[in-house]
Design brief:
By secondary structure, the chain is mostly helical. It contains 8 helices and no strands. The radius of gyration is 19 Å and the shape is globular. 36% of the residues are buried.
């Protein structure tokens, strides 16, 4: 058994770019994992005139916004040489996602839900393609499967730990505190992205 473990993990070295991108998403996704399972309840119970229909519409608006915008963003970062543009687009996108979490803490009307979902979708459209482009370029050769699996394992575990916790926090302290916490974790995740700057490619 010991030899088998040694064979599979001997000399495994994950570069710093992959590490910091993973740390960032652990914080970001774990933060949003606090509210994702109960966001429909928030829309129906805490929004004036809120309903299940609003919850579905909100999800549609987010996905439409993100889907429409992320292809042009992805094309732009592919055509632009170097990774500095990828990095700053990723920072702006992650910061926009964090801002949307804080905005959720103060919304009370259906139109505000839609507006924040559009902002959230813009953040996703900027953040996801640029994050994935940098991750793809810096993934270690012959370790692609391992590094992607470690990323998904870490982020899934973070989401699993926070999924049940979110409901408890909302019941104990209210949704406003919960969304503020999501915003703080998103900001911390954005700050972790600074760790990739020493390794960004110029050409």
């Amino acid at each position: 058994m010991k030899n088998l473990v040694k064979k599979y993990f001997y000399r495994v070295r994950i570069n710093s770019v992959i590490q910091f991108l993973t740390y960032s998403d652990i914080l970001m996704l774990s933060g949003w994992g606090l509210v994702s399972p109960i966001i429909a309840v928030f829309f129906t119970d805490n929004i004036v005139g809120g309903s299940i229909v609003l919850a579905g519409l909100a999800s549609t608006v987010y996905l439409l916004t993100k889907s429409i915008l992320q292809v042009p963003v992805a094309r732009y970062i592919d055509l632009k040489k170097g990774e500095k543009d990828d990095y700053w687009i990723m920072i702006v996108g992650s910061s926009t996602i964090a801002i949307s979490a804080f905005l959720f803490a103060f919304i009370t009307l259906p139109w505000q839900v839609i507006a924040v979902q559009i902002i959230y979708g813009i953040g996703g459209a900027l953040s996801f393609p640029s994050w994935q482009a940098i991750f793809t370029r810096h993934i270690d050769k012959s370790e692609e499967g391992l590094e992607w699996s470690l990323y998904f394992t870490a982020t899934d575990l973070g989401g699993a730990l926070t999924a049940g916790l979110g409901g408890f926090l909302a019941a104990a302290f209210g949704y406003r505190i919960l969304f503020v916490l999501v915003g703080i974790l998103s900001i911390l995740g954005t700050l972790f992205l600074a760790g990739v700057t020493p390794k960004l490619r110029k050409r």
